[in-house]
Amino acid sequence: DSGNLAVCFEALKNGLLGFCDRKGDSLALRLERLLQDMDLEFMYDKEVELFHIGYDTSREAFTDGHYDLYASEALLSSYYCIAKEIVPAAHWKNLGRTICEDWGRMYVKSWTGTMFEYYLPTIFIPVIKHTFNEQMLKSVFFAQRLRNTHLPWGNSESEYYLFDEMLYYQYRAFGVQKLALKKRQDLDNVISPYSSFLTLPFYAKASLENLDRLEKYSMYGKYGFYEALDFDRSRVGHGFAVLKSFMAHHLGM
After folding, report:
1. How far apart are CA 129 and CA 230, in angstroms?
2. Which residue intervals of 109-246 are DSSP H helices?
3. Geometric angle at alpha carbon 252, from 250 and 253, rounded to 5°
4. What angle, 0 to 180 degrees and rounded to 10, lies between the N-to-C axes of helices 2-17 and 75-83?
5. Sign (positive/negative) of CA torsion 194, 198, 204, 210?
6. Which of 149, 216, 204 is nearest to 176 (CA)?
7. Dist. CA 49–CA 8, nearest whole Å
8. Please, how many CA atoms are within 13 Å of residue 79, restricted to the half-sphere of its CB?
9. 3 state SS of 62
10. d(CA 54, CA 228)
11. Edge to edge, what strands does the sheet with 190-191 contain?
12. DSSP-H helix ranges across the chain
């Protein structure tokens, strides 16, 4: 998340510099100071050339594990830190690319097989034609649609139709098992509209058609599309449940 924030600051800073006025320059300078104060190098493990997942301030120690998957939203942090020469370019080759093949297509595994993991970085990182990255994204799009041939598609991180003691919706990742290293991802089918917005720049017709299908499930509210559509029978029976909430992060994407 710190890496994602840094990338957003960088993009906003450069956008503001395009405006020829004092206010724009002033905001850009503030963003540059914020970026300089973000010590992302601190999170980099030089021995394994990967980023730590986190730092526990109460124990004053790094948490177990590293961000070691190419197909991850953490790709943004890696891309940014290499571009800014915060970490060496050699870090890029250490991001895991576990590949499998099915139906004549190459699939690159992520942790949970969600749209968010694969497509969030494309908001900021260019996707070049005829590259490994483009082929990976094509395969993900194919696999996501194949899972939901008779329903709207788009499995990702989202809220779902289960409540805590405060009657808040619960939240977790919903992905496609073919794409996931973590097991048992195909047990629930929860569809998030933001998945279609992430694919819109690449597959406009199919993405718009999917949003039209979602709208027919009464998925559109005052601030846009609702958070998710839950088809899991153990929670909603033979029908479906509309999660009538709005998450700023998802609407922003």
Report:
1. 35
2. 115-119, 132-147, 194-199, 204-215, 233-236
3. 70
4. 50
5. negative
6. 149
7. 24
8. 21
9. strand
10. 29
11. 190-191, 228-230, 241-243
12. 2-17, 22-37, 75-83, 115-119, 132-147, 194-199, 204-215, 233-236, 248-252
Q: How would you class 129 by CB atoms within 10 Å of its CB: exposed for 0-12, middle for 13-18, buried for 19 or more?
A: exposed
Tokens of 152: 């709207």
Q: Looking up tokens 């961000």, which residue turns up?
A: 67
Model confidence, pTM = 0.93
Q: At what angle do helices 2-17 and 22-37 cross, to 10 degrees?
A: 160
Q: Classify 224 in phi/psi space as left (phi over 0), alpha (psi -120 to 50) or beta.
A: left
Q: pLDDT, tens digit, for every residue of 97-154?
A: 999 888 788 899 999 999 999 999 999 999 999 999 999 999 999 999 998 888 999 9
Cβ–Cβ contacts within 10 Å for residue 177, how many? 16
